[in-house]
Amino acid sequence: MKVADFGIAKAVSAQTMNATAVGSVHYISPEQARGGYCDERSDIYSFGITLYEMVAGKVPFEGDNTVAVALAHLEDPVVPPTEYNPDICPGLEQIILKCTQKRPDMRYGAMEDVIADLRRVLVDPQADVLAAVREEAERRSSSWRWSFSCSHGLPAFSPQGRVRISGPRRRRRHPCLRWR
Asked: Is 81 helix (H, G, I), strand (E, B) or coil?
């Protein structure tokens, strides 16, 4: 599957092109708007904006110019699409809102996960797709009795009695690099 920005297909203009990036400002991720690192999660954000527009009939952020729209992507919360279309099922709204989180680490990690949740909602429109995320977070938080975190390398104990040392990480050299 390939996803294209159809805004560019219509016309390349001052709103879709600048010196560093090409794309419609209505679909860019916050990290793209900042000029930061982009990965698959940036595409997932754009996909979420596209889904939002499909079900709500409008993009979540509008503005008088491209800068205003880019700032909205950075700062403004996404209005739930049910505000514009109350017929959207809760599961689909959860997927859209997860795709359009401001922080990349709060979004889906891979498109396969989005597709799995879309299939789940197709079968059961009332499904709570975020329940698995909450259960995983609870499982992780209860797996450590207590831990310390500082730059001095203090130990952390797990329920299994294993000791984990947290502290400053050493820089690793890439295996292709050699000392000369």
From this structure: helix
Report the predicted TM-score, pTM, of the whole model to 2 decimal places: 0.65
Residues 13 and 22 sit within 8 Å (Cβ to Cβ): no
- Reference 33, options 1, 9, 63; nearest CA is 63
**Identity of the amino acid at 62:** E
Q: Where are the domains of the chain?
A: 6-130, 143-180
How high is the mean pLDDT in each 10-residue block of the chain (180 residues)? Answer: 47 45 80 88 95 94 90 92 94 95 93 94 87 69 48 45 48 44
**In angstroms, rounded to a whole number, what is the distance separating the alpha carbons of residues 49 and 44?**
9
How far is 27 from 67, CA to CA, in rounded Å? 13
Domain 6-130 carries which CATH code? 1.10.510.10
End-to-end CA distance of the chain: 45
Q: Alpha-carbon distance 74 to 11, whole Å?
A: 25
Closest of 96, 106, 46, 91 to residue 73, by C-alpha: 46
Are the C-beta atoms of residues 50 and 80 closer than 8 Å to each other?
no
For 34-48, write each residue's pLDDT tens digit: 888 889 999 999 999
